[in-house]
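Priority: medium. Attachment 1 of 2:
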């Protein structure tokens, strides 16, 4: 493959600069699509980061969905077809998150290549959560499993098992990285529970309901999400109901998205007399590719420190978690 243009005229030079990880020298960056290595395509950045933590420098990982993009409505450009035609495996979330990308992959993959739906394989249909942003009648369950570290661990396990079968020569390496990543998740889990225990009321009103599975695992209550299933703003009547909910709940803060500013949430915060925090992210990693914070762990730590402090809790335990990858992150993250 002679280079591919992914949503921003990606070239070999761009890959060498923007795709660098934290543990390797960019001047020695490999050429794209080395024919002797497994070529992996991924969708949203948290999945790309989880995959990179398992495969490290033993496979080539290329993200498809640019950070800061609405992954629910994102449609890849035709130029992504070339990448997909060279991929050995495409790791996607599934649960009807990235249907245009999945459809393009299904029509582009070479013989023997596969699409692996991490979220779909992680939980049974009986555990699907439907909510304000994802009503059951719409047929699309909430797909944001990766914001729950206990489920992200399963994503990593699926990647480890798949890559071990696909690339048995490196199976021990993938298993070692999975063990380290699982330990990292244990550390984060303890810090989250410690910090969350200091919050007077663990109740969330967000722009987009990306925390439903997280809330179930960590005993939070999602009191609402203002983004409705068609990704439009709620009606005035729905806004009035949310204002009353916030007043009744007595929470000190409500949460917007760093990527998608919401005048409606600002209005709700103003009228309910609570703080509006517009910094949460669900699939846009902090910082820039190559930076220490630019990782799934960096994303989780950032979001949960933000939630804890805005709701009156003590985030000391979370702040003590050192953000790092367990293997070199050499993935390409389109911006």
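Attachment 2 of 2:
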């Amino acid at each position: 493959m002679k280079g591919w243009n992914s949503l921003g005229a990606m070239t070999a030079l761009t890959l060498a600069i923007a795709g660098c990880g934290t543990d390797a020298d960019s001047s020695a960056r490999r050429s794209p699509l080395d024919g002797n290595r497994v070529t992996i395509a991924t969708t949203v950045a948290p999945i790309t980061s989880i995959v990179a933590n398992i495969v490290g420098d033993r496979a080539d990982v290329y993200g498809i969905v640019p950070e800061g993009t609405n992954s629910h409505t994102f449609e890849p450009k035709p130029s992504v077809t070339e990448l997909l035609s060279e991929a050995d495996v495409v790791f996607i979330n599934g649960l009807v998150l990235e249907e245009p990308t999945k459809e393009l992959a299904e029509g582009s993959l070479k013989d023997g290549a596969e699409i692996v739906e991490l979220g779909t394989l992680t939980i049974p249909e009986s555990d699907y959560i439907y909510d304000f942003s994802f009503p059951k009648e719409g047929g699309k369950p909430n797909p944001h499993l990766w914001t729950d570290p206990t489920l992200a661990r399963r994503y990593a396990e699926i990647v480890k098992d798949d890559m071990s079968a696909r690339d048995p020569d490196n199976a021990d390496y993938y298993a070692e990285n999975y063990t380290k990543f699982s330990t990292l998740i244990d550390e984060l889990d303890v810090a989250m529970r410690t910090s969350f225990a200091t919050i007077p009321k663990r109740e969330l009103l967000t722009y987009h309901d990306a925390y439903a599975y997280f809330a179930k695992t960590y005993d939070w209550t999602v009191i609402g999400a203002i983004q409705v299933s068609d990704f439009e703003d709620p009606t005035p009547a729905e806004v009035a109901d949310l204002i009353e909910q916030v007043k009744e709940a007595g929470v000190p803060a409500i949460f917007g998205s760093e990527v998608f500013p919401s005048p409606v949430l600002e209005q709700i915060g103003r009228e309910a007399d609570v703080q509006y925090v517009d910094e949460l992210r669900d699939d846009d990693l902090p910082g820039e590719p190559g930076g220490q914070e630019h990782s799934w762990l960096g994303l989780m730590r950032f979001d949960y420190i933000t939630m804890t402090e805005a709701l009156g809790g003590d985030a000391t335990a979370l702040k003590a978690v050192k953000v790092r990858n367990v293997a070199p992150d050499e993935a390409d993250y389109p911006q």
